[in-house]
Amino acid sequence: MKKLDTVVDEKISIGISGCCYGSKVRYNNKGWDFLEFLGREKGDYIWHPVCPECMAGLGVPRNSIRIAGGTGDTVWSGEGKVMQQGKGDVTEGLKQGSLACMETLKRGETEVFIYMDGSPSCGVYRTNLKKQKRGNPPGVFGSLLLEQGYFLIPALEMQSPIKWWDWRRRMLAFVWLKKQEIETAEDIYAVWHVLKFLCQEIDNEKSREIGRRIASGQFEDIASEAESFRAEILEMLRKPSTVNKIKQSLWKNYTYYKKHMGLEVEEIMEPTDLRNMTTIASELVLMERKSFEEGFSFGTSPVIYRDRRRR
Ligand code: SF4
Questions:
Q1: Residue 310 has pLDDT above 90, yes or no
Q2: Among 6, 123, 132, 232, which residue is least crowded by beta carbons within 10 Å?
Q3: Do 2 and 123 contact (CB within 8 A), yes or no?
Q4: Tens digits of residue pLDDT in 89-117
Q5: Cis bond leading into 137, ω under 30°?
Q6: What is the pLDDT of residue 202?
Q7: Contact 55 CB / ligand 1 (< 6 Å)
Q8: What is the phi-psi region of residue 86: left when phi exceeds 0, alpha when psi lies from -120 to 50, beta otherwise?
Q9: Which long-range contacts (CB under 8 A, 24 or more apart) does 103-109 make?
Q10: Is there an atom of ligand 1 within 6 Å of 52 CB?
Q11: Which Pfam families does this chain map to (predicted)?
Q12: Domain spans in the chain, listed from the N-terminal domain onward
């Protein structure tokens, strides 16, 4: 089978809500530095902070805004409005600010965005904070991000080492898959061979269906089959896994590694061993490193990032 290079050695460009990057751009002149949770890893990416409300010319500090009459989607379709206390209708400004941010993200060649949920602008699945209802999701900029097919990571999940680890491995697989040339049946088999363990962990039923289709080898129109295969897997990679599934997967892949490489990694614990999330995340990072060094394909994290100098 065709062997694909699964190491990403170019820094990934990531868009991020400005207030999560440490910029004090929120309506109340505050912000959060979520990157501090990544430690040295933050240097592995190129960051593109944007703030649609600042780009709308609403300034800092400002009165908060809310979506009146629907969601961010209905604002774009012309049925909903964005209202600001004391100022009234700011719909047009927020649309222009959101489009300007999107242009910036496109110029930066981003496909990933870390968003602040709960905002009527950047929120994707929530547009309210502390029970203050500010319209229904998605937010106005969130709606654009969804429409453009971004890989969307909630900023709050960066605080948990295991959740961030799960987002990172799926993000790497997502960015890698977008770049793969899939033109022949052989390309489909090769890509599936790389991603199938991760897909099975995320959604076993869907993966079985894809696996059966590929195994049948009956591709009527290879170009449309390849694109729907890519789209289905990109969609699957957006879904988070669970800690239990991650632990099972780590153990399964580790036992395979032990058997085939004849090597033991004493820090790796069994799924039933009690340990905290930080320890599990360290075991996963250790297995990623060991697998890379030994040239072993670790199905749990099929695509990894290595700086060119460390390859
Ligand atoms: S959530 Fe978005 S619009 Fe609101 S302050 Fe943060 S970056 Fe700006």
A1: no
A2: 132
A3: no
A4: 999 999 999 999 999 999 999 999 999 99
A5: no
A6: 96
A7: no
A8: left
A9: 104/48, 104/50, 105/15, 105/48, 105/50, 108/13, 108/15, 108/46, 108/48, 109/13
A10: yes
A11: 2-thiour_desulf (PF04463)
A12: 7-158, 167-237, 243-310
